[in-house]
Amino acid sequence: MKTRSKPILFLCLLGGILLICFPVWLEVTGAFSSQWELEEKLAPVFQNQPGRAEWTVLPLAPTLENLVEVLMDSPGFFTMFWNSVLICLGVLAGQLLVGVSAAWALAQFPLRGKKRVLNMYVLLMLMPFQVMMFPQYLVLRQLELLDTLWAVILPGIFSTFPVFLMYRFFRAVPRELLEAARLDGAGEVRIFWQIALPLGKPGILACMILSFLDTWNMIEQPMTYLKDKSLWPLSLFLPSIGLEDMGMGFAGALLMLIPALLLFLGCQDQLKEGIALSGGKG
Amino acid sequence: MRIGRPETARRKKGRDAPGKKRKDILIAWGFLLPNLAGVACFTLIPMIQVLVSSFQRAIGGKWVGLENYVTVFRNAAFETAVSNTARFTLVCIPLLVGISLALAVALQSLGPRGNPMSTGFLLPMAVPVAAVVLVWKVLFHENGLINGALAALGGTGVDWMHSGAAFWMLVISYLWKNLGYTTVLWTAGLTTIPQSVYEAAQVDGASGWQTFLHVTLPNLRGTAYTITVLSLLNSFKVFREAWLVAGDYPHESMYLMQHLYNNWFRNLDYDKISAASVMTSAVVFLLIGFLRRAWDEEE
Q1: Does B34 score more than 90 pLDDT?
Q2: What is residue B37's predicted lDDT score, i.e. its pLDDT?
Q3: Which residues pair with B56 in a beta bridge?
Q4: CA nearest A186 in B: which residue?
Q5: Alpha-carbon span B228 to A244, nearest angstrom
Q6: To the nearest whole number, what is the mean pLDDT of chain A?
Q7: Of A122, A172, A280, which is closest to residue B220 (Cα–Cα)?
Q8: Which of the residue ranges A73-77, A188-192, B129-133, B256-260 would you say has the lowest mean pLDDT?
Q9: pLDDT at A281
Q10: Where does chain B hold its CATH 1.10.3720.10 domain(s)?
Q11: A19: in domain
């Protein structure tokens, strides 16, 4: 009986996946539809005309014109894309620089007050952004960082989630290995470089993927700390594209989706590992 | 053993010469401090400042005791936001936790084919909200695709944006985004249950359902705690969808705490915002009490 129900289960799950992926498919096909076709199909939605919006599985007349327009004729898009890239690079580099070593120290050294620091990190990592929004705004104003990309990058670097994740990973490094290295006379810095980093690579990678996805998707922080529109990342710019440029909106969204999607598909196993780690399989 | 122990102890003492040990600890603090300083500067100290200022008037800094808190509690928008947020949480979390557990069990029963399939469910995690705003609008508009599908199935359409259905749009967005993530968490929990336990149940003649109830579920208790709290905290992020699709003042049924914060912030209502921040942190703090218990149980 159990074996007979498997194909049905399989098909049900496949249906579920199709349903889940449907919005993404809409987005992709939208990017390859002409402005004219989109207006034709979606007039009931965007111009409030009677009738219902329609969609076809594939565009009727596939075209690259939207993508070309976004890539060639809209300098604004490039600025925003570049802002997004800069923010992500800054946050990830910073986390590598100060986060990895902090996680290592917490995982492997008998520091006094360590437990308290860890508890505090967990607490902060679970706070919703809105709680931090106002306090952080005050600090950034004091430091005169508002309306610079640093206002988004610096708090991002000191997010405690990556430290916590890598801490869990580093804790699994066997003590005996370190003892042996110490007996051989290796200093702590050398141990960090030659044992911690190579062994922790999968954890660090998983963590960087999660951080990237989070930062690439950032909305609340830039919305609160950046008034100057020329500093906005893509995530804020896209929703402001008007309906008369719907085609460009879809194309821009596709370009924003591509890096995240490639990373996701390329590193799905590490990503899953990272998620499992965040949940406490420890 | 009895002979070996003093020897090991002596060896340990000999190796950890006090001077070297102190140096190691100093290096370790060196590893930790840059991060700790940043965290203190950008989150910890500001939060303490806000705690203090929640008892003061924003302009002038005069001590007003609990006045700010009273103002917040008397605020009608606050009441709406709190009850919506609570309702959202109470509807979403059980739905998400239940569906994802069923999904994880189903995927696991497929064996090796389950892993690539879980990728399909995880996909929305990689999709930036901003990249699907247009799609959301096309799907959820009164004349949109979902209502089209409902009509084709013989149902009647719903005005998703301007009625109580707006709330359900949020629920769907949240489930869409978090289903895969939570499923992977459950899967991780499932793989920690030793195979031998299942075999024992099989020998005892337990049916599939009995095994699930009496073997699988009790073994997932720790995971369930963690998942519930993580889902809860992820539920705060649904504001992105709400804001991108419906703006600063959406239909009343989806006006969340986060909208309130933003609007207060924009109107420079600093008195209210600091009091509300403190209260929200207090609630989160309590939730984390539960979470830590779950984690400690496992360690």
Answers
A1: yes
A2: 96
A3: B63
A4: B24
A5: 43
A6: 88
A7: A280
A8: A73-77
A9: 44
A10: 68-298
A11: no
Residue A192 belongs to some domain of the structure: yes
- Given an 8 Å threshold on Cβ–Cβ distance, is B288 in contact with A188? no
More confident residue, B161 or B255: B255
3-state helix, strand, coil in chain B (%, to 5): 80, 0, 20
CATH code reported for the domain at B68-298: 1.10.3720.10
Which chain B residues are Cβ-neighbours of A99 within 8 angstroms?
A: 35
Of A126, A157, A261, the CB nearest to B284: A126
Quick check: A121 and B39 CB within 8 A? yes
Q: How many CA atoms lie within 13 A of B65 on its CB side?
A: 2
Is there a contact between B131 and A2 if contact means CB atoms under 8 Å apart?
A: no
A122 is a domain residue: yes
Query: What is the rounded CA–CA span in Å between residue B273 and residue B262?
Result: 9
Q: How many domains does chain A contain in total?
A: 1
Contact A66, A29 (CB under 8 A): no
Contact B290, B225 (CB under 8 A): yes
The residues near B121 (Cβ < 8 Å, ≥ 6 apart) are A16, A17, A20, B103, B179, B180, B183
Residue A215 in this model has a pLDDT that exceeds 90: yes
Question: Residue A54: helix, strand or coil by DSSP?
Answer: coil
| Confidence band for A245, pLDDT divided at 50, 70 and 90 | confident
Q: What is the pLDDT of residues A51-91, one digit of tens each?
A: 777 788 888 888 898 898 888 888 888 899 999 999 999 99
> Could you tell me how many residues make up chain A?
282
What is the residue-wise DSSP string for A10-24?
HHHHHHHHHHHHHHH
Tokens in use for B184? 């992977």
Q: Rounded to whole angstroms, how far apart are CA atoms B263 and A129?
A: 15
Structure ipTM: 0.87
Contacts of A35 by beta carbon, 8 Å cutoff, 6+ apart: A65, A66, A245, A246, A247, A248
Position B99, amino acid:
I
Q: Note whether A102 contacts B34, CB cutoff 8 Å.
A: yes
Instruction: Kindly report the CATH number assigned to the domain that includes residue A91.
Output: 1.10.3720.10
Structural domain for A134, as ranges: 85-237+258-278
Whether residue A45 is contained in a domain is answered as no
**Alpha carbon distance B32, B44 (integer Å):** 16
Spell out which residues of chain B touch residue A124, defining contact as CB-CB under 8 Å: 39, 43-44
